[in-house]
Amino acid sequence: MEEERENNNNNTSKSKSKSKYWIINTLESRTFSWILIDQSNPYQSALSWLMFFILTIAVPILAHIVYQCNTCDYSHRRPFDLIVQLSLSVCSTLSFISLSSFARKYGLRRFLFLDKLSDVSVKVRDGYSDQLHRSMKLLCSFIVPCFLADSAYKIWWFSSGGNQIPYISNIYISHTLACTLLLSSWLYRTSLFYLVCVLFKLTCYLQILRLEDFAKVFEKKADVGFILMEHLAIRRTLRIISHRFRAFILSTLILVTVSQFASLLVTTETGSLVNLSTAGELALCSMTLVSGLFICLRSAAKITHKAQSVTSLAAKWHTCATIDSFDDMGTTEETPVTNTSDRANYNFSAHFDSDMDEGDEDELDNTKMVPIYRDTISYQKRQALVTYFENNRAGITVFGFMLDRTSLHTIFAIEMSLTLWLLNKTVGFS
């Protein structure tokens, strides 16, 4: 009977885990794996690369050559099509190469750290599962509006262009097939780019959950060695994430910057024809690339801020324990190790927390007092731990540069300076 119960429990737990990650199962299925991710066998790998070549390289090149439409009326000309096609194709190529490398080296489940979830708490596993489903919704919320907007533009362009737009044999069949291919290419390229950005956000969110769970060790009796091992494990995972995505983040930042400055240059030059019909697709392309870059930079800055908040939390924990120990120490210089009763809440702590406004703070970055268990860890150990945190700041790095809020401010300042300089050269802005 007991063996049957254990088997039933194991089966139910496996079914629950499969149901939680049904999105991963779907992406790994034969229906989707050959399109984006799977490189498990030569056949699927060749099919995946063939699809990539057709929709990312062949279709955009043919579309730019055939549908340049220099003899069309002004509303159907495409003066900025080269920048649009080149920007999307280069970013999607970078995304596809990154995805192929991830799938070949790690596999989707290992890449998303699903194999490490057995080492974390139930709260972290449930939060990660929920975030996985929200990430897929976020992916759709970015892809679907862009696709619908581009669909409306291309349907209008082909339907209103008539005989001005080149066609083969039958105008209706030719325009329908061309429109379908162009829309498929747009959807494929934007999906690749957004997918890598959302996967990066998802992996960062798992570490945020781990850090919030890690912060609770300061509220209970814990050994310095245990705290150190947990923090080292989180630092190692953050370093792995940084090494996996650093080339993608840096390349995306450079490519998006070059694309935006090229767009600004051609749209502000003298005699440039800029209206909704000619520059609408360029604006849509710019919003796509900038939003993807924003997802990456914001996720990196958020996890870095959370990781560095551990230093503040440890210093606050050390301070609270030291202040309380001095109240009872007398002339003793070291915190006594005695079997005193646990005192989780003190008068000054309760009074301080009573004036707090809830909703503006989280588990790591808050101003709440920490429960004291001074009989567990001595002053020297606490001081050594705080010193370690101060000199070993964790976070997302790109070739040694920490992606924190200061880095984002620096990037914004550089981008703004270059933008103003370019506007001064093109439209005489001062």
Automatic annotation (TrEMBL):
Listed transmembrane segments: 49-70, 82-103, 135-153, 165-186, 245-266, 278-297
Pfam families, sorted: DUF3537
Keywords for this protein: Membrane, Transmembrane, Transmembrane helix
Protein name: Uncharacterized protein
Organism: Tagetes erecta
